[in-house]
From TrEMBL:
Residues that, per the record, bind substrate: S9, K41, L74, K88
GO function term, MF aspect, one: pantetheine-phosphate adenylyltransferase activity
Residues annotated to bind ATP: S9, F10, H17, G89, L90, R91, E99, Y123, L124, H125, L126, S127, S128, T129
Species of the source: Pseudarthrobacter sulfonivorans
Ranges in coiled-coil conformation: none
GO terms under cellular component: cytoplasm
Name recorded for this polypeptide: Phosphopantetheine adenylyltransferase
Keyword set includes Nucleotide-binding: yes
Highest taxon above the source species: Bacteria
Swiss-Prot/TrEMBL cofactor(s): Mg(2+)
Length: 166
């Protein structure tokens, strides 16, 4: 069983993410979409809503599991879950510069490989941040997000997550 992980905050999930996840599903037996929360960061959507949006939009694809990932080491998560590859979409050389040291570190820590997939040309410019900005200013982002995400963007965000105690 070849298992891969697509990690990210997915705040919210958009078509660029979906395209890379679908391609990963064609390469691996199982793809875990690991939705992360960094409690030092501010998200528009709660973890529960980010998980719901990912699950709703990926429901029709086979071999995909959506689950939360703690804020610990991704390399350790991969070791515990028997993940052989981390799949990342690359939009630009700055994505590559950012990802390369992490990929090397993850391989040295746990032997997990990182597979880079070039982003689809139509979605090269997409980031969750830009989508939230444009939607917040009243621009149409319906070409870039699934319908259920679009609805939520129009409705505004959700209440922030509380960090776990202790
Ligand atoms: P971050 O990890 O910076 O919060 P995201 O959660 O939005 O970023 O994205 C998770 C991963 O999805 C990124 O690391 C990248 O590999 C991939 N990704 C993001 N945007 C795109 C895009 N437009 N096309 C392809 N892949 C993308």
């Amino acid at each position: 069983m070849r298992r891969a992980v697509c990690p990210g905050s997915f705040d919210p999930i958009h078509n660029g993410h979906l395209e890379v996840i679908a391609r990963a599903a064609g390469l691996f037996d199982e793809v875990i979409v690991a939705v992360s929360t960094n409690y030092a960061k501010k998200y528009m959507f709660s973890l529960g809503d980010r998980l719901d949006m990912a699950r709703e939009t990926l429901a029709s694809l086979k071999g995909i599991v959506v689950e939360p990932v703690g804020d610990g080491l991704l390399a350790e998560y991969c070791r515990q879950r028997g993940v052989s590859a981390i799949v990342k979409g690359l939009r630009s050389s700055s994505d590559f510069d950012y990802e390369l040291p992490m990929a090397t570190m993850n391989r040295q820590l746990s032997g997990v490989e990182t597979v880079f997939l070039p982003a689809e040309a139509h979605y090269l410019h997409l980031s969750s941040t830009l989508i939230k900005e444009v939607a917040g200013l009243g621009g149409s982002v319906s070409d870039y997000v699934p319908r259920s995400v679009h609805k939520r963007l129009l409705a505004g965000g959700s209440a922030p997550d509380q960090p776990p105690r202790g």
